[in-house]
Automatic annotation (TrEMBL):
Family: Belongs to the gemin-2 family.
Protein name: Gem-associated protein 2
Alphabetized UniProt keyword annotations: Cytoplasm, mRNA processing, mRNA splicing, Nucleus
Main location: cytoplasm
Species assigned in the record: Gopherus agassizii (Agassiz's desert tortoise)
Amino acid sequence: ELTKLTPESEPRSTGIEAARCPDVVVAQIDPRKLRKKQTVNISLTGCHPAPEGYSPTLKWQQQQVSHFSAVRQSLNKHRNHWKAQHLDSNVTMPKSEDEEGWKLFCLGEKLYSEAAIAVSSNENLGIDYIKIGFPPFLSIVSRMNQATITSVLEYLINWFGEREFTPELGRWLYALLACLEKPLLPEAHSLIRQLARRCSEVRVLEENKNEEKVSALNLLICLVSRYFDQRDLADEPS
């Protein structure tokens, strides 16, 4: 299950034959249509460098890429099996264009309505996924097509742009990256770069390099830069 954002610590020998993504997306602009002194802004900014001692080793980064590649292969191989599994009666997946619905689905009422008054607790036994958010179970993510995966990635990255990083968010970001097909569409290419930059911004503010959050942020930067070939965003090994 893709329910935990946990870096893989054991080295694996699998070689990664990742399809290369273009390093630069070229905008086709007709110079005759540009007014004098008009500027075109294309975001080429990189990540904030890791603070001293926060950058992962190259070996660690290679291990994460290897493990992530194995997760993707397994997911593709068994997609039809997981897709055929019946969802529990409490699972209602939102429509692709329902941004608020997806944020509520993935992050739960508690995170989504941070300022909301606590609802009186139910006496139901078991986990209330409506409150805490549905983890990215394989039976759920296997039902999502590429358009939905890209949309949900955008919704969650927008959410992250204004809020703290949480384990619930991290699990979903990892799972959605694992489902993202290569070569990347331009929209997905832009989104994952935005994600890596945001992770680097949040990491700079962390006071303790041993926080689990730092490891999770390092992992997402590593996958964007080294698995999806956005090498200009990669952490220089410590």
